[in-house]
């Protein structure tokens, strides 16, 4: 069972987190100036105070680092044009500051980044890819026919006819 910190201990811990100096933190927490150095070092060895400091430091660190959800939320705001960018303009009359939304290229990049984070098992996307591949194959066959080439069906038909001719000659 963890013991709750006294107000003086909590003030010490909070001041220590700010400065990193145990003696200074002890003085600011209200310990006597003569004993501040030894009390500060002693407080850092107490498990409850050390645990509180460690938890606070971990929380501070986690707030400084963007997690995946925050990143996707930011990308979504950019893609929707909700995130504004500050633009500084200089003219002969003076300097002006204005807000503008992301340009189309930036918004498209944000959408692409968002889509990278979703699994590729989407049936709709797979169907669209299959459709695009089929359309490309059809276009390629039509182009080949227009150039005078033969598509696979014609080649197979020609092979079949050659085979039949060979059989008929043997008879």
Task: Tell me the layout of helices and strands.
Blueprint: H1 7-19, H2 22-29, H3 36-45, H4 47-64, H5 68-80, E1 84-91, E2 94-101, H6 104-116, H7 123-146, H8 152-170
Antiparallel strand pairs: 1-2
How would you describe what is shown here?
The protein is built from eight helices and two strands. By secondary structure, the protein is mainly alpha-helical. A two-stranded antiparallel sheet has the order 1-2. The radius of gyration is 36 Å and the shape is elongated. The model has no long low-confidence stretch (mean pLDDT about 85).
State the end-to-end CA separation.
101 Å
Runs in which pLDDT lies below 50 for 5 or more consecutive residues are none
Helices and strands: which structural class?
mainly alpha
Number of strands: 2
Radius of gyration: 36 Å
Q: Outline the biggest β-sheet.
A: 2 strands, antiparallel
Strand content: 5-15%
Mean pLDDT: 83
**Broad shape:** elongated
**Biggest sheet: strands side by side, in what order?**
1-2
Helix content: 55-70%
What is the string of SSEs from the N terminus onward? Answer: HHHHHEEHHH
Question: Total number of helical segments?
Answer: 8
């Amino acid at each position: 069972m963890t013991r709750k910190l006294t107000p003086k201990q909590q003030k010490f811990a909070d001041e220590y987190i700010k400065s990193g100096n145990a003696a200074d933190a002890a003085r600011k927490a209200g310990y006597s100036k003569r004993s501040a150095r030894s009390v500060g070092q002693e407080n850092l060895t107490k498990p409850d105070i050390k645990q509180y400091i460690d938890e606070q430091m971990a929380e501070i660190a986690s707030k400084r680092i963007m997690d995946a959800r925050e990143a996707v939320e930011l990308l979504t705001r950019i893609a929707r044009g909700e995130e504004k960018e500050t633009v500084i303009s200089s003219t002969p009359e003076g300097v002006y500051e204005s807000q503008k939304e992301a340009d189309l290229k930036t918004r498209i990049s944000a959408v692409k980044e968002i889509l990278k984070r979703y699994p590729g098992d989407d049936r709709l996307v797979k169907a669209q890819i299959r459709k695009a591949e089929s359309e490309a194959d059809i276009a390629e066959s039509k182009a080949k026919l227009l150039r005078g080439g033969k598509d696979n069906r014609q080649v197979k038909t020609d092979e079949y006819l050659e085979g039949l001719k060979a059989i008929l000659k043997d008879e």
